[in-house]
Amino acid sequence: xxxxxxxxxxxxxxxxxxxxxxxxxxxxxxxxxxxxxxxxxxxxxxxxxxxxxxxxxxxxxxxxxxxxxxxxxxxxxxxxxxxxxxxxxxxxxxxxxxxxxxxxxxxxxxxxxxxxxxxxxxxxxxxxxxxxxxxxxxxxxxxxxxxxxxxxxxxxxxxxxxxxxxxxxxxxxxxxxxxxx
Length: 181
Known about the structure:
The protein is mostly helical. The protein has 6 helices and no strands. The protein is rod-shaped.
């Protein structure tokens, strides 16, 4: 029985001589291949991000540009110049000014995906403050007054601000863009 056990032990050792190195080679190959594939996936992700940056950066810059243009266009003096029509009454001008602001805003809504949430909140707030300024100026004059009366009232109201809300938003956007780019 001793020889039988010895013979079985020798056979097991012979099998282990072939199987053990094969397992070591397989394990090494598995881990090397796994590391290689993970590295390739990481490199692919980095390359994809770099390509996205090349595409998105110009779009982000354009978004900042368009939002700043919007904010400049809703400055009360610029807005009055663009919408002026001497045949309008004060109430008609008020309506036209607010409609113009809303149309400009709606035209630029999609730009919010390219700027920070804080910047977009300032843009919305500036728009609402300018509308509020126009409405508060219109309260001081009669609806049937000529549009020039409303123009003067709006300019007077805007002079009461230390800094117009749209100018605050523009300053914030400029700071933000200088930090990002």
